[in-house]
Design a protein that fits this description.
By secondary structure, the chain is an alpha+beta fold. It has a domain at 1-16 and 29-128. It is built from ten helices and six strands; from the N terminus they run αααβαααβαααββββα. It has helices at residues 9-16, 33-47, 51-60, 77-80, 100-105, 114-119, 130-141, 155-162, 167-170, 234-250; strands at 69-70, 126-127, 187-188, 206-210, 214-219, 224-229. Strands 3-4-5-6 form a four-stranded antiparallel beta sheet, with helices on both faces. It has a two-stranded antiparallel ribbon with strand order 1-2. It is globular.
Amino acid sequence: MQSPCHAPLDDFLRHAADVPLDFSTATDCRYSSVGFLLLGAIVEKATGLPLPEILRREFFGPLRMQDTWLGVPENRADELLPTVLPSILPAWQAEPDTGEDAVESGNDWGWNSRYWRTLGAPWGGMISSAGDLGRYAAMMLSGGFSDAGERILPNAVVQAAMANQTGELAAQADFVGAARAWGLGWRQNWPGHSASFGDFLSPTAFGHWGATGTTMWMDPASQQFAAILTTTPYEESCSAIQRVSNIVTVL
């Protein structure tokens, strides 16, 4: 019997349909883990393939991202999991048990558990390395080409992903959210804010923070990028990561 703490992604998707809306359409814009869950389901429905396989075929493989998976494959978990650095859990999330009793009861569900690392959650289940993420960043800054000259994304898609897609929404009279510029899956830099990617990046820089203490940004103006991976939660590592970003931009 499946432990409720080890729910498959299909269970998450089924329960997402019962989640009430936080706000009316076109009145706010927020980052949403459920949104990425639904997007992944749409991709799978359109292609007829599991999302990890689509990503491997369309992105990770062509970009030679050999250390990247959306969920460590179960048939390679014993080989790969010892190479994945453990993350420090945030203060609000208690470290679940990791002993044999916890494994048997299904209570080993945290960020460092085998369950989470093999789940392949579209909203935060990717395992990668700084080198692999750098290859993806370089592809975005080159208009969608890999370093081998292979077209990975149409340039129109790259430009749309980098552009502010929420400006018109935030200008609506009934908009109540933060006027934060989002592209397609990426957030534009927010100068002067505690969640900015750095002090010396251009306003057109874009990227994303990770709750486990990671960030990745790309700056079309300077053609620079950074992939910074720590094992300390975002709440504690944010300012340190910004200082590292500052060093990168002035080198």
